[in-house]
Amino acid sequence: FNYDSSVNxxxxxxxxxxxxxxxxxxxxxxxYGSYPDGSIKTFSRGGSDITGAIISSVMGADIYENWTDVSxxxxxxxxxxxxxxxxxxxxxxxxxxxxxxxxxxxxxxAVFPVRQAGIPINIRxxxxxxxxxxLIIGDDQAGEDYAxxxxxxxxxxxxxxxxxxxxxxxxxxxxxxxxxALEVFENRGISIDHIPSGxxxxxxxxxxxxxxxxxxxxxxxxxxxxxxxxxxxxxxxSLITTVGIKMAYQPGISAKLFTALGNSDVNIRMxxxxxxxxxxxxxxxxKDFEKAIRAIYDAFIK
Length: 302
Known about the structure:
This protein is an alpha+beta fold. The protein folds into 2 domains: 9-144, Carbamate kinase (3-Layer(aba) Sandwich); 150-302, VC0802-like (2-Layer Sandwich). The protein has 8 helices and 11 strands. The strands form 3 sheets. It has a 5-stranded antiparallel sheet. Strands 3-5-6-4 form a 4-stranded mixed sheet. A two-stranded antiparallel sheet has the order 1-2. A hairpin with a 6-residue loop joins strand 10 (270-272) and strand 11 (279-285). Helix 2 (47-59) runs parallel beside helix 4 (111-117). The relative contact order is 0.12. The mean pLDDT is 91.
């Protein structure tokens, strides 16, 4: 480790290469390393995942098998959807999208060393060794049989978000209004999740816990910075992401998702989709969170 607690990649690679070159088989303890002075430094929880990924990268392994207590990833949360199907293959990009919304089995930092080296990860279950688990592959390795014929790979979400809605007449003709609004949050060290926009309005979406005690102050700052009186806060919002690399360029995916939510009497408060088309994010009321996830799962998988 460096003294700032980051991994010293060059020194780690040098030391591991030296040791592993002398070994046909090696058993290496995980989750800790040392500072330059030799004192011990431990990773955060899940650090053994990172250790395995770094070693796999240095070795140039064909595959990194990560044995844990679950058989990989499921398409949806089993606490919400009854007996959801297992994800057999998922790309690194899809994994990142789902993990951000809470569908996490691996330590996030464990992905980067092997992804950069082009090494797939196989999540396996120690208690069910015959189960093939989930294989995490590069985006360019998703073949024709990818996702078992399903258009989507997974569904995940989180509750308790807040919207800061800012409206200003003729905003489209001004320069820097969004920048001024974002500075209000930046100055407080608050990270933003999404910024959907209209012609004369935009919405800043972020977890409620990050603004719980200062939302009234932020509203007044936004009014002053953006020179508008129309700033509103909406709470008790959930975000749900539907992810699938196969969704790109397929007509009717959004319509199918929105129809499923409409038929389940779920009102959509926000829609967000990037140009990559790898995911569709919708915002719903917290009270509709579980119902919305079940509706999407039933429409695409069941």
